[in-house]
Automatic annotation (TrEMBL):
Its EC number is 6.3.5.4. The record marks D374 as: Important for beta-aspartyl-AMP intermediate formation. One of its GO terms (molecular function) is asparagine synthase (glutamine-hydrolyzing) activity. This is asparagine synthase (glutamine-hydrolyzing).
Length: 642
């Protein structure tokens, strides 16, 4: 786990070592243990690497690293968990190693088998920049599920790339500027999905992709298209491993082996434990294969309805882990909120970013690596919204849907008073609340597919009404056509959608930025490609029963933890941000909504935003999710200047 950045530039005025050092300092939190530079004058290419030492703590693991032949140079962020198995294969083929890092194994593999065949063999999380001095190319590549970030793009004639945007901003060629289409997606989902970033001309490399640049070709506009080296949809072919019990035992063995592989570390290791199904399963399998007590960490809140720490403590006691917990107060959040634009690097508005950072900060005081239970909901049909959305979609033309469809068909010019009289459910609500709700209903009613219906169901703003002018949203994971192999009009449609946007663009961004801001490596066993392929090959009825998902995963956990300790409604990692915005966070929010700050941008309509803010303050409606995205954008803009 580290961070890297680099550039390709023919501008002789640039002092490469000075510039690379500055780019590296911008992401020093990702790798506080060491820094390395590499520059090739003829190619105009440079790499900087910041190291968080996890495997091979010696200088033999330092980066950027050259291959044994000198042909390749790599800067790599992440972990390849099966590097020991690959090392054994390569030694048998005659490869000689200087150290025992996974980076060196990757380079030998690429020299021995080629890049694409090696990518197929790597099991892990990674983003890397690989320079081929023989072919005079730069290849940027990202892991299958998108655990590790990678930004790239041209600023003028200079190609910039790196683990975080702040490294790119440190280059003197940086121009910046807000991409309005990306901002529209932020308002819709509170995150910016790949391949887009908040900045014009800068993109996120999608998961399971690589992009190649010819270093002697100069500036290339448009950018070369990324190539996919692995296809998630190929995992959706159902191949039941026998009975449900057979599947359960196979999953326990498979996931247990993956967990054991991911427990390999030369530094202290632990795990996040929320007390839910996913993290409890990972911790249970860790403790079953560990030779000592596993260190576990959880976070809690005093506000009723938001606290899972007590459940985590019960699971920890049963499993016998060495457990540490932290209770978060509004003051903790108040102190952290102003730092969010710096931590998350571009506007990011999943409010669970607050506890994620705080639990990472606490965990880093005890260990350097933490395993996480993320991915279980997307892979094992765990979200309660899945059956709900599909049921609503299938019933949209039934008699039970008449009320919603009638409300959605009301003319936009109809007054709020008339709507209250016609629609009983809207009586007592303000005109703004009625209009906001009806726009969402109209968007649902106009949906022509379950994918579009789902997109509208998980949107905060159904229409970009807070923009001063119409903005067209670009294509992303929820609007891209379904590939062959993914069943249409099915729960697996929704799972595929989330695996292609919500998981990599929200969950994994949240975890990566929060943990790396604390110099903590996180590992996610559920996202091992073998687990992914197994989970998606299962029939739906192995996961969903009576509207409750993750049945096969639950069966694994119940062999280690009594059902009553974990079998409860899903709570999520939420925070009471709506309440906090009316209380301790109100001064911060109002400072951003003040004309002196709000007026620095011309994209959002102040009157519309202020109307929602006042409605939220009155307590009549909860618009915290809609407002949080706007506040995170304004805070980011104030921090970076755009």
């Amino acid at each position: 786990m580290c961070g890297f950045a680099g550039f390709v530039s023919k501008e002789s005025a640039v002092e490469p070592e000075q510039v690379l050092s500055g780019m590296g300092r911008a992401i020093a939190h990702r790798g506080p243990d060491d820094a390395g530079l590499w520059h090739h004058l003829d190619l105009g290419a440079g790499l900087v690497h910041r190291r968080l030492s996890i495997q091979d703590l010696s200088p033999a693991g330092a980066q950027p690293m050259a291959s044994a032949s000198g042909r390749y140079v790599i800067a790599f962020n992440g972990e390849v968990y099966n590097f020991r198995q690959l090392h054994s294969e390569l030694v048998k083929l005659g490869c000689q190693f200087r150290g025992h890092s996974d980076t060196e194994v990757m380079l030998h593999a690429i020299e021995q088998w080629g890049l694409v065949p090696s990518l197929a063999r790597f099991s892990g999380m990674f983003a890397f920049a690989l320079i081929d001095l023989q072919e005079r190319t730069l290849v940027l590549a990202r892991d299958r599920m998108g655990e590790k970030p990678l930004y790239y793009g041209y600023q003028g004639t200079v190609l910039l790339f790196g683990s975080e945007l702040k490294a790119l901003r440190a280059h003197p060629a940086w121009q910046g500027g807000v991409d309005q289409q990306a901002l529209a997606l932020l308002l819709r989902h509170n995150v910016i999905p790949a391949p887009w970033s908040i900045h014009k001309g800068i993109f996120k490399l999608p998961p399971a992709s690589m992009v190649t640049f010819q270093l002697n070709a100069g500036h290339s506009n448009p950018l070369p298209e990324p190539e996919r080296y692995w296809r998630l949809e190929e995992c959706f072919v159902e191949s039941p491993p026998g009975s449900f019990d057979d599947a359960s035992h196979q999953l326990e063995s498979l996931l247990g082996d993956v967990v054991e592989d991911q427990m390999v570390s030369d530094v202290p290791l632990g795990a996040f434990l929320s007390g839910g199904i996913d993290s409890s399963t990972v911790v249970a399998l860790m403790q079953a294969r560990a030779t000592q007590r596993v260190k576990t960490f959880s976070i809690g809140f005093d506000e009723a309805g938001f606290n899972e720490a007590e459940h985590a403590a019960e699971v920890a006691r049963h499993l016998g882990t060495e457990h540490t917990e932290l209770y978060v107060t509004p003051n903790d959040a108040l102190g952290l909120v102003p730092r969010l634009p710096e931590l998350y690097d571009e506007p990011f508005a999943d409010s669970s970013q607050l506890p994620t950072y705080l639990v990472s900060e606490m965990t880093r005081k005890h260990v350097t690596v933490a395993l996480s239970g993320d991915g279980g909901d997307e892979l094992f049909c765990g979200y309660t919204r899945y059956p709900s959305v599909l049921s609503r979609w299938q019933g949209r033309n039934s008699l039970s849907g008449l009320g919603r469809r009638a409300a959605a068909a009301l003319p936009e010019s109809l007054s709020a008073a008339a709507i209250r009289a016609l629609v009983p459910a809207q009586r007592g609500r303000s005109g703004l609340a009625i209009r906001h709700r009806l726009k969402a209903e109209r968007a649902l009613a106009r949906s022509s597919s379950v994918s579009e219906f789902y997109r509208q169901s998980v949107s905060f703003w159904a229409e970009p009404e807070c923009f001063r002018q119409a903005v067209r949203e670009p294509t992303y994971g929820l609007t891209r056509p379904l590939p062959p192999g993914v069943p249409e009009e099915s729960l697996k449609t929704l799972m595929w959608r989330d695996l292609n946007w919500y998981l990599p663009d929200d969950i994994l961004v949240k975890v990566d930025r929060a943990a790396m801001a604390c110099s903590l490596e996180t590992r996610i066993p559920m996202l091992d490609p073998k687990v992914v392929a197994f989970a998606l090959s299962l029939p739906l009825d192995y996961n969903l029963k009576g509207g409750v998902g993750k049945q096969v995963l639950r069966s694994v956990l119940f062999r280690h933890v009594p059902r009553e300790l974990v079998d409860r409604p899903k709570q999520g990692f939420a925070v009471p941000v709506g309440h906090w915005l009316r209380g301790p966070l109100r001064p911060w929010a109002e400072s951003l909504l003040a004309p002196s700050v709000f007026g620095k941008q011309e994209l959002l309509d102040e009157s519309v935003v202020n109307a929602y803010w006042q409605e939220h303050l009155r307590g009549r409606e909860d618009y915290s999710a809609e407002l949080w995205g706007i506040l995170m954008f304004l805070a980011w803009l104030e921090h970076t200047g755009g």
